[in-house]
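User: You have something folded?
Assistant:
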Amino acid sequence: LQRWHVDYFLALAEAEQPGMTGAQQAVWWDLLEVEHPNFRAAFTWSRTEADHETELRLALALGGFWHLRGHIREGSGWLTDALTRTEGAAWELPPATDHKLRAKALDLLGTFMVFRGELDSAQPLYEECLRLFRELEDSAGIAENLGGYGMLLVQRGDYEQAEILLNESLALWRELENTGGIALTFLFLGNLAYAQGNTQRARKFWEEGLVLCRAENFTWIASTLLTQLAMVAPEEGNYQRAGAQLAESLTILWEMGELWQTAYTLEVFACLAAAQGQSSATGESSLLRSARLFGAGERLRETTASQVLTFLQDFNERGIASLCAQLDEATFKEAWAEGKAMSLDQVIAYALETHTM
């Protein structure tokens, strides 16, 4: 019975249809959320009773759900356990198949470690993953790994090596004619340029990526690109454009029921509100809105066990410093706590109804 249970829920997890967007994706993730206790039971039994690949396949099938619905800590635990059990174990699958499963799991766990701010733990995972994919001559696997590995190096400040990896990733995605991979790599190359202080180059990459995403309906990548673009719009004094970009991003994320990127989009909203408080007639109301949105972002980060990516920390810290310089400590703390106490629906509605102020 337990074997049948595992087989059923493995099939369910692997049944996600490609191309799901917006509300479709939200319905799917809602189903996985409802069945999460069953997935946990399947993992627990598989740990001691199932063949080695079952746990890896289940973890890989749930990877996107764990990431974007805020289960990064739990997903990291199951992935670590699955990979540990496969080390030195006898596999029933052909070597190429088991190496590919292990490589994908290493890549996913490396990504989760990056999100948690554990860069030292992530690097050897990415390196081993890349070695396996190169042995397999798996172009798509190599391209995907190079993107994540490149972003790890961006966060470590190794910009020269990061650019080499990201350009190789872009070339591979172009050879494969994979538009989603190309758009995602434009996001990463823009992040690299932004980390280097070249905001104009960053904007160019992000805008190119957004054009591709709109044409192919890659909604989650589009939401991230819109948030990144909103970070550079105020440099031209264009707060209205930044507000519109953030509102579109947040609406997409809300429809999807996504949590991980939502935290940072709220924080960018907060930074812009703090900057507006310095020069706008709304004055204190913009500052209070900023503090509440920062508080809401902090709560989401606690929920998702995620950290602000290192190349974005300066932008965040400048927003908080600006806010603290304009609000007295008691008012700041009170507004921050109010935002932290809001439900997700409340805070998203609050951000959207005030974005034009």
